[in-house]
Design brief:
Elements: H1 2-16, H2 22-38, H3 44-53, H4 58-67, H5 76-90, H6 92-106, H7 111-122, H8 138-158, H9 164-184, H10 193-197, H11 200-207, H12 214-223, H13 230-244, H14 252-257, H15 266-269, H16 272-289, H17 294-304, H18 308-318, H19 326-334, H20 348-358, H21 371-383, H22 389-403, H23 409-424, H24 430-448, H25 457-464, H26 466-478, E1 485-488, H27 493-501, E2 506-509, E3 515-520, H28 522-529, H29 533-549
Antiparallel strand pairs: 1-3, 2-3
Length: 562
């Protein structure tokens, strides 16, 4: 044992001296191999201690790759404990290749022991031979080792089974490792923010967090606050643990407080895919665990912005009583403010994934979709979870305020107004409906001023806004709006045609070059109280009659039979 320690010390000194030739290093390695081969297992503790005392992992790699074997007088627990110590000290990334070579040498004769070693390092073995390896990126290590052993296991199972105890042990540990690899697997989609920013090893470790301590991830984030935002790091972890139904209540407070605000990146929240899957899970789990606190919601809102809204809606649908809390109402009312914030320039991938899940909305063919359209769509989704008419009125006013003067308002405001009319006509109070009608007409006037491929104003107006005209007809004819509609600019063609067709109920007043006014007659107000179905049926019947009368006559064909 004393000679072995001396040889090991000589080899360590040779590694530290960069001027020595590789020949002497090989000679020292062969001498160490000779001592290991001829001595008994009693000298293994001395060799293990000497290797662990080294500060250079090259000799450890050499010993793992070539010399370490499972002899009859060396217990698996002793070798596994030493391997665990070397992986902890030097990191498994440096020792991965020698460890795979070790498993390749062990698997033909000691396949059960090799599976037991890997399962023990992963922490899933029923009778572990060593402690679980608490090291970053453990999921990738287990995945590589399992792939190295799986091929040998397949060949072993093809042969007739003679030792049933060994076969049972192999199958049990193989299933445990396979399940561990399956649960911790995180598919990284090319083109996403995580795929572009974070290394693959980190993503695998985050996905494997379900079998590790949550503090490990938080500590890893705190050590590198400028490398990646904490929420983006926890996102795949939340995605992975959702499949195994783990409790996230203990992780959320640490995530909300970890790292300075500058470490959060808005681009990470630009992916609607992450928000839909991860944020809803976090909010729901947080509510199930200890409830929502104003500080937690404020942190989520500050870092997520408007992308938090669909997750908030999902959580509100699970817990309807939360919609009455002052904090939630305040967040909903502040939502339009986020529309003024800067959005990521590259949004094509985010929009593609979002539309793949939720369907593509009706957008103007001449203009590609933008992040603003998605934000408005999410904001309208929030309205579905709001029950108070006062809150709806405030949100509608905020939406129209944000649309005013925006470069994309010409196209986006139509989608907003149509969605409000279609989905929330029974909830919108008269002031909110009046605002929407006013905004709809103003948007029509603005659209007329935009030249489009040489089309005439009237043709463009009727061709692109037929749905808007239908909404406008129904709103003016069937609503209980008693206020005057005062507008600026030229009277649109559809509105003039509407007043002409329903002159008994609508009156166009004070028409001039600068503006006009629309007033509902007393007869219209009386008929509105009797219900809107009669008016709507009359309009539809009139359109159907016009369609039939404009059809060309059918030519009769005579077939002469001879």
């Amino acid at each position: 044992a004393t000679d072995v320690v001396a040889v090991a010390a000589e080899i360590f000194a040779a590694f530290r001296d960069r001027d020595l030739s590789p020949l002497r290093l090989v000679t020292s390695g062969e001498r160490l191999q000779l001592y290991v081969a001829v001595t008994s297992a009693s000298v293994f503790p001395a060799i293990a201690a000497a290797l662990l005392a080294s500060s250079d992992p090259q000799l450890v790699c050499l010993f793992l790759e070539t010399y370490l074997t499972l002899q009859s007088d060396v217990a698996l627990s002793t070798a596994s404990t030493w391997i665990h110590g070397t992986l902890t000290k030097f990191g498994w990334e440096r020792l991965l290749s020698p460890l795979l070579s070790l498993l390749d040498r062990w698997s033909p004769t000691h396949l059960a022991q090799a599976f037991q070693l890997v399962a023990s390092l992963a922490g899933v073995d029923p009778t572990p031979v060593c402690a679980r390896l608490h090291s970053p990126f453990l999921g990738e290590l287990v995945r590589a080792c399992y792939e190295a052993l799986h091929a040998q296991l397949t060949q072993r199972l093809r042969a007739p089974i003679t030792a049933y105890a060994e076969a049972t042990s192999l199958l049990t540990r193989s299933l445990l490792l396979e399940q561990y690899v399956h649960v911790t697997r995180f598919e990284v989609v090319a083109g996403t923010w995580l795929y572009d920013r974070l290394p693959t090893a980190l993503l695998h470790e985050i996905a494997a967090y379900g079998a590790t301590d949550a503090c490990t991830i938080v500590t890893l984030v705190a050590q590198h606050p400028t490398s990646f935002p904490p929420i983006a790091v926890v996102a795949p972890a939340g995605w992975a643990v959702r499949n195994v139904n783990l409790n996230l209540g203990s992780l959320l407070p640490d995530v909300a407080r970890s790292g300075p605000p500058a470490a959060f990146d808005n681009a990470a929240w630009g992916s609607v895919l992450l928000v839909d899957v991860m944020t809803a899970t976090l909010l729901t789990a947080r509510c199930d665990a200890v409830g929502w606190s104003p500080a937690f919601l404020e942190a989520c809102y500050v870092h997520a912005g408007l992308a938090l809204l669909p997750a908030l809606v999902a959580a509100l649908s699970t817990h309807p009583s939360l919609s009455a809390e002052a904090t939630v109402v305040a967040i909903l009312q502040r939502a339009p403010e986020v529309l003024r914030s800067n959005t990521p320039s590259d949004t094509i991938g985010h929009l593609a994934r979002y539309y793949a899940q939720h369907g593509r909305p009706q957008v103007t063919p001449q203009r590609p979709p933008s992040m603003s359209d998605v934000q408005l769509y999410l904001l309208l989704t929030v309205l579905e979870a709001v029950t108070s008419t006062d809150q709806i009125d405030i949100l509608v006013a905020g939406v129209l305020h944000e649309l005013d003067g925006a470069p994309w308002a010409i196209h986006a405001s139509r989608a907003v107004i149509y969605r409000l009319f279609a989905s929330f006509s029974h909830l919108l109070p008269p002031p909110a409906r009046l605002r929407l009608v006013n905004a709809c007409l103003e948007n029509h006037v603005t659209a007329l001023l935009v030249p489009r491929r040489g089309l005439a104003m009237d043709d463009l107006y009727v061709g692109c806004d037929c749905v808007a005209c239908t909404r406008l007809h129904r709103e003016l004819l069937t609503s209980d709006m008693r206020c005057l509609l005062t507008m600026q600019g030229v009277v649109p063609r559809c509105l003039r045609q509407l007043v002409h067709e329903h002159s008994d109920r609508l009156v166009l007043e004070h028409e001039c070059a600068t503006g006009y006014r629309v007033r509902k007659t007393p007869l219209s107000l009386v008929q509105t109280t009797n219900g809107p179905d009669g008016d709507l049926r009359r309009v539809m019947a009139l359109r159907e009659w016009k369609t039939l009368t404009l059809q060309p006559p059918v030519k009769r064909r005579w077939f002469w039979l001879f």
